[in-house]
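Hi everyone,

Forwarding the result from last night's run.
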Amino acid sequence: MTEKQKYLLKLLQEVDEICREHDLRYVLAGGSLIGALRHEGFVPWDDAIDLYMPRLDWEKFVEICERDLPPERAIQCSQADRHYTNSYSRYASADTCAIHRSQIAGKDVAGEVIDVFTLDPIPSDDREYEKYRTYFMIYSDLLNISASYSDRWEIPVSLYRKYLYSYLFLGKDRTLSKLEKLMFSYKEEDCDRYAMGWAGCPSLFDKETFFPAKEGTFQGLKVMIPNHCSEYLTQYYGDEWSYMPAYAEREGHRTVCVEGATYKEFREDYMSGVNRGRLNRNAIRQKLYNMRIARENHRVSHKGLEYKAGCVAADLREAIRESGLNLQELMEKGAYRKLGNLFVAYYKAQLSPDFIGREDFDHIYAYYHPVLVDIPDEVFLAAVKTLFYTERISKAFRMLEIREKADHLTGEMESLKTDILLFRKGLEHYEAGHMDECRKLCEELLEKYPGHPGLMKLKCRLLMEKTGENLQEAEQFLEKALRFFPEDGYFMKYLADILWMKGNGQKALQLYARVKENTANGFVWLEMDKLFRPYKGQILRNCEEMIGSRQRTEALQTMEMWQKIMPEDEDIRAGWYLAKISCVRTQSQIEKLIREILEKTEVPMGTGDKKEQNPGYKKALAKAWKRLGYPGELAALRADLACISEESELEWLAEKVRSRQIHKEEKPYVYKLVGDIRSKQGQTREAFENYRKALEYTAPPYLKTELYRIIISDLDNGSRQIRNFGKNADMLPAMNSWLGKYGTLEEIQALAARLV
């Protein structure tokens, strides 16, 4: 965990304790719930915690906190603080500074927060939801003047203007209170749905999706999770929620964090240059303009997509004609990979958020007004069945829903839609522990869709639940599955589990090493990590022992295998670097590995970063610098230097380094490292004084190379900067500052001659 994640976990524990003490309902939600299920804690790159709480419970929570909350905590919601700018609520720390983009011009508390999205009761009548949504958009627009929400729903500009005038002339509190009465007047006992109150897209959920809540685990903390986790996550994220995203898609939230300052101190600095009145006036004008043109914008955009859809349909017809393929025959043969290749361009357009939308801020209009490419029934069926058979089930279901609303479904399409719902029901049974019901549904669907990878994986799960009863049956099924899908990491993993249980460890490890390259399923990754976590210490000790006994190639081969098995584990990665550094032969290869490690570990001065450092990386760095000629103790101290930024720690490190001056042969290294410490502290003159002293000794070749690089780079950068000055009056002070750290002109000339 990062320091930020540790702090958020502390806040979550506080919220959980309040809720348990006062019998208040809440559930972990969003990315936090995915983290709880897929990682048993934070998604590694996430830096937020999301909760859902029924509105009645949240209102009680606010009342309790207003009485008992300590001064370093704050409740942020529009009902408690009319200066607050978001439609969702927050449990915040008032003694930290983490300003979110939406809060830049606000007056609300801007510390580390737990985001709490209220669940508002909504009747089954969709007209009531639409009324709620309309008022909620206007409400959100009035809360946050600088953001625009209503235009994406085509809220009538006259209606918004009505409440805006009320806001301006009758007051913010009076106007918001009136809207709150309109939105939050439904009684929970009369409603069977919740609207998740977020201004971008207030999504609808069945109440039983969340409650009664279950107990789950998050970073070792017992927390409440939804009654039907998979149903909620599938609805909100699609079937792909259980899969690890590609590295390029791993994003955290954008916040401005300032270590050692409160939000008030930071805000006073930047808000002095902001004209809030002018900002708000411009934002209101922009909102009104956006609402006036929203309908025409959407019409034009929709019409453009319809033209594009016509082109996509024509291209698909031509591609099918040129291929000479018979779609019906391919479906009967189960040649869905070949069909998938035929539909690539069609899928790229039809499944894009522009065409079918998403329940997010940017694509919510398209979600409610999708564009369907007009293709014949038999082609559409082939495209949807291909999605179904290639494990893009939520996309197949979405396509069927759109087709049903826009046109019609054939009998076979209706049957497929029903079977997808049955498949999801089977997954719900599995999640709830109803194995007999799950098994029955799975077998029925497999009979109808033999060779379907998702159904086969569900059956695999069911067989693995009782491997102790019939190990042979499970092994035979997995071998059959791998004949169908020879490169599927999911089946590889469970066959490897059986081999491991049977004592065939070497063959199992070879199979495990291929798993993560062939599946992104987060549950498979978690299970593997949990299996091998107890062995991690022994793996790393074995690696070091092999390196110590000169079995360096064997150590590298072993760590390469474990790196494949546990690619996300930083300890294993550090051991892999240690083995690589022990094996490479050239200076350039060692330097390349050093740069890679420093990207992960180096902490610049003044960042206030207190993240935990992996001792394995330090060990690898020390090994690298030792191979480049640094004495063992100084190599380790140089590794320490990369990982610290606190002034007091750097001074302690400088003293530690200077203590090695008693060894004559180490003196040039000592001066070089002290220079590096001073350089990191921003003490440039002192740094170069030490670099020059290091050069006075007969330094080893690599040390000389490092020193020459530092000085040549400085001379080059300095001369470039000087050439940019247009006037001598400007140039001379800069030259004096730059060249002053080298001593006299004669000393500079002598140093230059030595470098040449």
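Residues 607-611 have pLDDT under 50 and may be disordered.

Cheers,
N.
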